[in-house]
Amino acid sequence: MGLIISLVRSTWAVSYAAFSLTSFIFTGFAVFGERTPNRATNVVLSLTSNQYSEFPLIMFFLDLLFQSWLSITGTFHVSPLARFFSYVNVITAAGIVYLFKRSLDCQDVVENFLGEISKENKTKFKLPGVTSPKFWKQFMNPFHWPRNFTLNENIPYWTSKEQMYAMHTDGWESVLEMAVDVYRPDNIEGGHDRPVLMYIHGGGWTSGSKSLLGPLVTEMIAQNWVVVAVNHRLKTKDGYPTQLIDCKRALRWIKEEVQTFGGDPYNVVVAGDSSGGQLAAMLALTPNDPAYQHGFEKIDTSVQGCLVQSATLDLVDANDYSAANGRERFIREVALRPGFPESAENVAFLKEHSPLYKVEGTNVPFLVVQGDLDICPVETARDFVKEFRKKSAASINYLEIPGGHHCFEMFSSPRTWYTTIATAEWLNYNFNQTDRSASAGEKKIGRVHELVEWWHEDN
C-alpha cells in the first residue's frame, strides 16, 4: 500500500513539475513577447501568451489549487522535485502579478484616449478599476454574446458570373466562402439607416472565418449598429488579391442591400483584425479602384471610416521589424507569385498592397489599435500613423495597448473591455451622428455598454 501511495505521489510531483515549467516558460513569453524567425511558432506562442496575459488570475489560481492538493496529500513533504518547482512558481507568480498589473494599465491609456477624441466637449472619463465592484462583477461573468438581435447567415454576395468562375476555378466550397452574416438589432427595421460596421476576420489570408468575432461586435450590436461579418475565399488558385476583391464584392452587396436590414449604405465603417486589418485598410485606401472591382466598376466602394486592430500594415517590412520573413510567405503562399520575394517585381507588388504606402491623399478617418507585444510589429503601426499624418488631411487616432499580444481583442478580459469601450466610442463619436445629436432627455446609445455595463459619463 505504501508503494502505491509513493508512486501516486511521484506521479503528482512529475505532473506538477511539468505544469510549473510550462507556466514559467509561457509566462515569460507573455511578459516579454514572442518574435521568432518561424511564423507558425509565433502564432502558437501568441495564442498561448494570450491565455496568460488576458487571464493571469485564472492561471494563478490553477497553480494555487495544484499546490494546495500537493500539500494536502503530503507530496511536498516527500518530494524534492515538487518543492523545487514550488520555488520556481514564486517567480512565475511574480510574472503573473505583473501581467495583471499591465492589463490594468489600459485603464489610464483608454481614459486618456477618450479624452482626446472628445476634446471639444471637455469631458473627463473614468472607467471602473480594480477597486470598483463593477470591475469584479464583470470579471466573474466575462463571457457575453449580443442579445435581442436577428442573425441572417451565409448571404451570398456573388453574381452568377462570379459564382461560375469561382466554382470552375476552385470548386463549390470556395463559392460558399463568398458570403456575409448580418447582425441586425431587433429594434432596427428596414429604412432606419443605422451605421454599418463591416468586419473582416483575420487568419493570415488563408484561414479564419466570419464567425470568429470578438467583444466589439457584441458592443456595436447593443448600440444599434448593423454589423456585417464578411467571409472571403481563403485558398484559391489565383492567390491574393482575390481576398481583397472578394471584400470589395461584399461591400458592393452592402451598398445595394443593407438598407433592407436597417443599415445606411452611405455610412459604412470597415474594420478588421490581423490580415483582416490589412484587407480593411486596403479597402478603405483604394475606393473605386477598377483593378479590384472588375465587372462592377461603377459601384461606389468608398467607406466612411476604417478601424484596424493587430493589423499587418507593411508587407515589405524594409526595416526588418519582424523576426519572421513575412515577405516570403506572402509572395509564395498567399499571392502565389513566382520568383524571389526580394525581386523588384515582387517588392513592387508588396508595396502596392501595403497600407503604409497607400495613405497619400486619403480622406478616410482611421483608428489603429496595436498591442506593444504584437507579432505584427508595433513599430509598423507607429510608422503607419506617422506616414498617414504626413500625407493625409484625414484624421487618424492611435491606441497602443500595453501588454497586448496579437489579436488580444478576441479574448474577453479587462484589457479587451477597456479597448472595446475605446473603439466603440470612437465609432460612435465619428459615425453615429443620430445619437450624438440626441437631446439631453433622450437615451444616448453610445453611453450604454452592453459588454461591461461598467461606466457612465458624468455630465
UniProtKB/TrEMBL annotation:
Family annotation (PANTHER family): AB HYDROLASE SUPERFAMILY PROTEIN C4A8.06C, KYNURENINE FORMAMIDASE
Alphabetized GO MF terms: hydrolase activity
Signal peptide: none
Listed transmembrane segments: 12-32, 52-72, 84-100
Entries under InterPro entries matching the protein: AB_hydrolase_fold (IPR029058), BD-FAE-like_dom (IPR049492), Carboxylesterase_B_AS (IPR019826), GDXG_lipolytic_enzyme (IPR050300), Lipase_GDXG_put_SER_AS (IPR033140)
Pfam (any one): BD-FAE
Segments forming domain BD-FAE-like: 181-382
PROSITE patterns, alphabetized: CARBOXYLESTERASE_B_1 (PS00122), LIPASE_GDXG_SER (PS01174)
Family per record: Belongs to the 'GDXG' lipolytic enzyme family.
Protein name (Swiss-Prot/TrEMBL): BD-FAE-like domain-containing protein
Active-site feature positions: S274
Keyword Hydrolase annotated: yes
Classification via Gene3D superfamilies: alpha/beta hydrolase
Alphabetic keyword roster: Hydrolase, Membrane, Transmembrane, Transmembrane helix
